Amino acid sequence: LHMGKTMKEDLTVVAKYIKQLYPPEFNVFSIYAELYHNYFSSQAKKNAESHLEDKDIYLLLSWVHNFYPKEMRKDHALAMELDKVKLGSLLPSSLSKELEKKYLDSEEVTVKNLLSRCLDKEIQRWKEDKEPEKLNGHFQSELLGIFVIQSIYSGQKRAEDISKAVGEELSHRLLKELPAFLRSYRDAFEDFKEKSKKHRYYKPILIANINNCWNFR
Fold first, then answer.
1. Same domain, yes or no, for 29 and 67?
2. Which InterPro entries does the record match to this protein (predicted)?
3. What's the structural domain count of the chain?
4. Same-domain check for residues 101 and 79
5. Closest CA to 152 of 184, 120, 125, 118
């Protein structure tokens, strides 16, 4: 953030006040822009090659795909000048792809684990002597029907905020996880139906799970 702010502010000063003090052939703005970019890029590369936590990978990818090319370099005071310089990306393509793969792998596992824990909690609820919750007057599982969908949607949205391509790749992966989760859910529900017919709230629990189907569709 400090580097980005410094680069943006300094280049704005160069564009507005310093550039015109030199002959055009000196390409003063281009020289400043390339020096700042090269330093910024070297620091990003250094960070990318170190051990990063998942949240740091996400932040670095956000800089590479979003903050740097779209917000910083498209600033109204700089866009016209920077378009002439062709600075390129903050990270080499190979390193960026490597980080994207780490992020996607991690996010896929995170969502998969969330779904698994959610189903475990739901199964535990079926065993309790409690009536299911009602939403808009109908038995339904907020935990299962809503939390699962939100977990998948949130994962997709975070990925799309990095780039469209990363968002599409994660969506493709999660759409493979969802059927696997639904199969586990179905098997657990069938088991409950067979073994828990004497449960005090057997019928409301059946209704709640049937109502969940609309959300999942």
1. yes
2. EXOC3/Sec6
3. 2
4. no
5. 118
Tell me which of 91, 113, 144 is where a domain ends: 91
Residue 189 has pLDDT above 90, yes or no: yes
Tell me the CA end-to-end span of the chain in Å, nearest whole number: 42
- Tell me what percent of the residues of the chain surpass a pLDDT of 70: 100
Half-sphere exposure of 169 (CA within 13 A, CB side): 17
How big is the chain by its Cα radius of gyration, in Å? 26
Q: What is the pLDDT of residues 110-159, one digit of tens each?
A: 999 999 999 999 999 999 888 888 878 888 877 777 888 889 999 999 99
Domain of 13, in residue numbers: 1-91
- Co-location of 3 and 23 in the same domain: yes
| Phi-psi group of 68: left, alpha or beta (phi > 0 → left; psi -120 to 50 → alpha; rest → beta) | alpha
Whole-prediction pTM: 0.84
Pair (54, 102) in one structural domain? no
pLDDT in tens, 33-58: 999 999 999 999 999 999 999 999 99
Residues 83 and 3 in one domain: yes
User: CA dist 2 to 10, 40, 46, 76, Å?
Assistant: 12, 10, 16, 20
Helices (H), the chain: 2-13, 28-48, 54-62, 79-85, 93-127, 148-162, 164-195, 202-216
